[in-house]
Amino acid sequence: MADVVLRNVRKTYPGGFEAIKGVDFAVGDGQFCVLVGPSGCGKSTLLRMVAGLETITAGEIEIGGRVVNDVEPADRDIAMVFQNYALYPHMTVYNNMAYGLRNRGMAKAEIDARVQEAARILELGPMLTRKPRQLSGGQRQRVAMGRAIVRHPKVFLFDEPLSNLDAKLRVAMRVEIRKLQRRLATTAIYVTHDQLEAMTLADVLVVMNGGQVEQIGSPLDVYAKPATTFVASFIGAPPMNLLTLADDLRNELGGTPAEAGILGVRPEDLVIGPGTAAQGGLALDITVEAIERVGPETFVYGVRAGHEARPVAAGKPGDGAGGDVIVRIPGQIAPAIGECITVAAAPHSLHLFSADGRRRIAG
Ligand code: ATP
After folding, report:
1. Which residues contact 103 (CB under 8 A, 6 or more apart)?
2. Which of 29, 237, 301, 356 has the fewest CB atoms within 10 Å, i.e. the most exposed one?
3. Quick one: which atom of ligand 1 is closest to the CA of 44?
């Protein structure tokens, strides 16, 4: 067990591309840290630097109180689980798990004890003599986890380990990984671009964008108080509505700080009805353009009266310039397409950001 500390870590790839632009964070002993961000933000690069698979251009990485910048991957006491779990196809499940330990020259009895223990934890006991092709995707992923567990590492590193699985299995394995990590109390760093996976797994959430950290915190704190509009629209689905604070909105809200340029409101904080505008809340007139019923709730997509529609792509930060508004309502009863409705949000559910979206101002 160990904590992991990154100090001003930078990575410039040969050719001059700056993939990591100075990252600082600490993962406490036994904590589950998730690095989340869009494709290309540098999360895999960062994880590979912790693993020692990628050199560090500047800064310091510490594992268990020891600076590991110049320590070989094999000597860092980490175990990594990849998206492509690459089991040896000709070996049994048992041998897949035992292989790395044999290579290290561990005694046979100790190897057997560790493999049996991992098999028990992962419920792979009955499958130890099977080959990978005789296993389901989820079972193969568990063998990949077993290979990491038998090492008794100080830190687990996961690089999108669930992306090859179907949606249902992903959810099941997500729960399994969390239970397992709690039980083993091993520090973990987990990379994903899936914000839901990040929210559900993390003790510490690190939201990355363009080689930098946008925000660090507990998932619920990040959700409740996003530091930037990037985080506001990346964490949460459907994303937070971001509206430019033009004069009409300022007048309606009354008394917004001058430095605020963008107003944010989560889809679930909007209700259909005239609301509480008089008490400093928000009320918007929208025309319903689309409805999505997902069972227990319904998403209403509308466009503000007098504004242009400009859809915010899923996972992409909105800049507040479009007129689109998403409302998330419980149940399946929804207004009709083309209907003009008023939606409202209470004052305490409003978020304010600077005009460039880089700073949270209030809310
Ligand atoms: P994804 O979710 O798509 O894997 P990521 O956040 O993990 O994305 P990285 O793989 O860390 O992103 O890559 C970060 C940036 O560094 C990308 O712009 C990528 O093109 C670049 N990059 C990665 N590896 C190299 C390399 N060997 N040489 C040059 N640039 C690289």
Report:
1. none
2. 356
3. 7
CATH label of the domain that carries residue 309: 2.40.50.140
On whether both 243 and 216 belong to a single domain, the answer is no
Q: Using the predicted structure, report yes or no on whether residue 84 has a pLDDT greater than 80.
A: no
- Please name which of 290, 286, 279 lies closest in space to residue 304, comparing C-alpha atoms: 286
Ligand 1: nearest atom to the Cα of 45: 11
pLDDT given for residue 262 in this prediction: 92
Q: pLDDT tens digits, residue range 336-363?
A: 999 999 999 998 999 999 999 999 997 5
Instruction: Point out the domain boundary residue: 200, 224, 248.
Output: 224
For a mutational test of ligand 1's pocket, the pick from 43, 163, 212, i.e. the residue with the most ligand atoms closer than 8 A to its C-beta, is: 43
> From atom 9 of ligand 1, which residue's Cα is the shortest distance away?
42
Domain hosting 132: range is 4-224
Q: Which of 281, 235, 244 shows the shortest CA–CA distance to 357?
A: 244
Asked if residue 43 has its Cβ within 6 Å of ligand 1, the reply is yes
| pLDDT tens-digit map of 1-53 | 689 999 999 999 999 999 999 999 999 999 999 999 999 999 999 999 999 99
Q: Is residue 27 in contact with ligand 1, taking CB distance under 6 Å? A: no
